[in-house]
Every structure is written in structure tokens, then in C-alpha cells.
Amino acid sequence: MLATAIFYTIAGIIFLTWTALADFAPHVAIIGIFSLTTAYGALRKRPWTIWLTIILFFAATTFSAFMIYNILTRDYILGTSMIAYLILTWIFTAYVASKRSTLES
After folding, report:
1. What does the pLDDT read at residue 77?
2. How many whole angstroms separate alpha carbon 79 and alpha carbon 12?
3. pLDDT value at position 8?
4. Per 3-state DSSP, what percentage of the chain is helix, strand, and coil (rounded to 5)?
5. Whole-angstrom Cα distance, residue 58 to residue 74?
6. CB-based burial label for 2 (10 Å; 0-12, 13-18, 19+)
7. R_g over Cα of the chain
8. pLDDT by residue for the chain (105 residues), tens digit each?
């Protein structure tokens, strides 16, 4: 769960920084806040972490797919980072789902 907390903390900080640089994009801020909250829940092994992870999975998948579709041909660095974020989100969601018995106890 420590790796999950680290991933979501880094993602949350990046998204909140991106919010400040993008003149307050509220959808990016929401993903950042959900990421930091999920990191806290994973670190403290709270039972609601699985639900936030699932919500964040759908939000991150939608956001990343939209960004990849619109940005990949113009900005390769941002496009490839969105692909990496999407893949890591799927991996850590599967990990949290497989460890849900740890969170529920």
C-alpha cells in the first residue's frame, strides 16, 4: 500500500501544480484532490479507499483518454506522460482491488 500512496501523492501534487499553471482548471484540481485523499486512505488503510480508487479510476481514465486523443500529435511529452499515468492508474487500481480485504479489516 505504500507504493500506492506514493503514486497517488505524486499524481495529486502534479495535478494541483498543473491546476495553478493552467489558470485553475477545476477538473484537474478535482483529480488532484481525489488523488491526495486516496493516498491518505491507502497509507492509513481506510475502508473507503477502495471507493475513491474506483472513482479516481474512471475519472483518470476519461481524462487521460481525452488528453491522449487531443494532445498526443502536438505534444509528445505530455501525451506519453498521460499514457504512463493511465497505465499506472490501472495497475494501482487493480492492486488496491486485490488488497481490499486488507482495507476492510
Report:
1. 85
2. 18
3. 93
4. 85, 0, 15
5. 25
6. exposed
7. 14
8. 889 999 999 999 999 998 888 777 888 899 999 999 999 999 998 889 899 999 999 999 998 898 888 887 788 888 888 899 999 999 999 999 888 887 766
Q: Residue 3 half-sphere exposure, CB side, CA atoms within 13 Å? A: 8
Residue 12 · residue 40 · CB < 8 Å: no
Rounded to the nearest angstrom, the gap between the alpha carbon of residue 55 and the centroid of all alpha carbons in its chain is 10
Say what the pTM is: 0.86
How many Cβ atoms sit within 10 Å of the Cβ of residue 88? 15
Q: Which three cell numbers stand for residue 66?
A: 481525452
Beta strand extents in the chain (DSSP E only) = none
Cβ proximity of 33 and 18 under 8 Å: no
The DSSP 8-state label assigned to residue 22 in this structure reads T
pLDDT at 105 (0 to 100): 62
SS3 48: coil
- Dihedrals φ, ψ of 50, to 5°? -60, -40
